[in-house]
Structures are given as C-alpha cells and as structure tokens.
C-alpha cells in the first residue's frame, strides 16, 4: 500500500515542478530546442506508443481468451455423464464407480453384495457410445459369462468411470 502511494506522490511532485518551471519565460522554447526531434524520432515515438497500446490491449483481452480456451478444454475433457432412469443426469467423476456416483447423488440402487461386483443384482444398461467401452475384465467378465450377457456393464461397483456415456 505504501509503494503505490509514494509513486503517486512522486508523480504529483514532478508535475508541480514542471508546472512551476513552465511559467518562466522561454522554458517551452528551450525544451523544444533541446529535444532535437526529427520526423524519424516522431515516427519512432508513435510506433512505440502503438506497440505499447497493443500490448496493453492484448493483456486486457488475455483473461477472456484464457477463459474461452478453458471452456473448450473442459467441454472436450468433461467427465462422462450418467443419466438415471428417473431422468436425473450427473457426472461420473474420475476414480469413482457408477454405484458410488448414484449413492453420492442420493439415488438408491440395489446391490446385495454391497458393491463388490459379485452378485450382479445392480445391473445397468449402456444406451449409447458402446463402441467406446473397453472389453470386460476380471470379475465383470466372469459375471457376464455366468449370466450370458454381452457388452453390458453388469455392476455399478465394477464399472470404471469411463463405462457410462451419454
């Protein structure tokens, strides 16, 4: 807080000094004589002013551009969406199972084994983008073989977050 105040005080003091000296006769003429300005130096000053204003405008617009880029990246990398039969849609966060997502959103879902992917009572159906599903493995593959299902995510507890797409 002290540095900006002192900078402003110095700016005001310098302005007052120039104003006092400008009242003496011949001051303005001596400034123009000492400046030794030419068309080239005037063009350089205008070029520097243009570059400075361009940089300033770019820095002002940078947060807006960054926000737009962030929005595009978010839309490209947003988490998969889970749509429940009751119509509610929710994001499946990385590292969570579908059963955990449903429970976190207050939607009851039957799971006799408590979400350990053994009983196949908590089956779900993938309605779209099934081509993006990886092949079932482990407990899920064994459960699918046992009940004779194909390309279906059997248990929300065993479904990886990428298993459900809207």
Description:
- This protein has 166 residues and is mainly alpha-helical.
- The protein has 2 domains: 32-78; 80-166, Beta-grasp domain (Ubiquitin-like (UB roll), Roll), CATH 3.10.20.
- The protein has 5 helices and 2 strands.
- The protein has helices spanning 2-22, 27-35, 39-77, 98-104, 138-147, and strands at 81-83, 89-91.
- A two-stranded antiparallel ribbon has the order 1-2.
- Strand 1 and strand 2 (89-91) form a beta hairpin.
- The radius of gyration is 34 Å and the shape is rod-shaped.
- Mean pLDDT is 82; it is low at 160-166.
Q: Can you identify the CATH class of the largest domain?
A: Alpha Beta
* Major beta sheet, strand line-up: 1-2
CATH topology of the largest domain: Ubiquitin-like (UB roll)
Structural class: mainly alpha
- Architecture of the largest domain, CATH level 2? Roll
Gap from first CA to last CA:
52 Å
